[in-house]
Predict the structure.
Amino acid sequence: MGKSVVVATSGGVDSAVTALLLKEAGYEVACVTFRLHDGEPGSRSCCSPDTVLFARDTAHRLGLPHFTLNLKELFQQRVMKDFVGLYAEGRTPNPCVSCNAHVKFHAAAFLADRLGFEHVATGHYARVGEGPTLAKAVDESKDQTYVLWPVPQRLLARTILPLGDYRKTRVREIAESEGLAVANTPESQDICFIPDGNYRRFVRKSVDPEPGEVVDSGGKVLGRHAGIVDFTVGQRRGIGVSAPTPLYVTEVRPQSKQVVVGRRKELEVREVRVGGMNWFLDPSEAYSVQVRYNSSPGACEVRKGENGEWIARLEQPAMGVAAGQSAVFYTEDGLRVVGGGVVAGKSA
């Protein structure tokens, strides 16, 4: 096994401690930060210009070389543009998944190859298990296996994830004990290129959505909306329709520009179609599936469907499953990732 590693650093405490731990473990460490977007002046969002400088300063304080890769064009095409396009199609994408699939790990491996280094590492809370496959972090409250499923197995085989064995409180303690300025930096936001969290406004800068109808499951028109980009399955607020009982978005129909709403019961899904699979283990080992970022895995049965898709039959119905989100399958013990893919929709 090689003792050299390129660590992807973002200017935060997790990646800084990752580099520190690997240095102390005897690895030859080089740090790299990716310039992904312009951000806003003073912004500390992941991979913005300011965090690039902060990450470089931290690396140098650790006595480590630091590189910067300008990946703005790639990030614009494979993450930001896809994010806008999928919302315009009525889907609900996760840009962190797209970044891990197309940008971050490939770029780190590219630099490692140029330097003649063996491994790559990130500050994600997850572990690399036998297979190799992804395994959940010790600190399950911080586990990030849900957004790491698209990492190709060939890259995972050379990936080190040191923080999978640590709790976040311990990571901050290590940073404080080493006098790192990043010890108490706040948690990074969900969407790094949308610092104010207003994804609707961000999408509307690139597309000019057309208005349409808000209907119930029977097709009855209940109102009008200003564009399907303002809606996602499971949404309750901002629908613009009054009713005696709470209404939720149950479906977004881009072709007819209709937003379908109904009662909470209508959000229940028993079967989910999943495409674009990345399997680490045999699909027969899939015991449970997580279909939303902030949800817990639920027991399921998996079978192969049509057109390369897979069908997950859920033991208990899931609420508000939206096309474009990730579906990640776990083993019976709940610790290892069997594989993951993108939700294509409900099964007919």
Q: What stands out?
A: Residues 209-262 form a domain with the SH3 type barrels. fold (CATH 2.30.30.280). The chain has a mean pLDDT of 92. The longest helix spans residues 72-88.
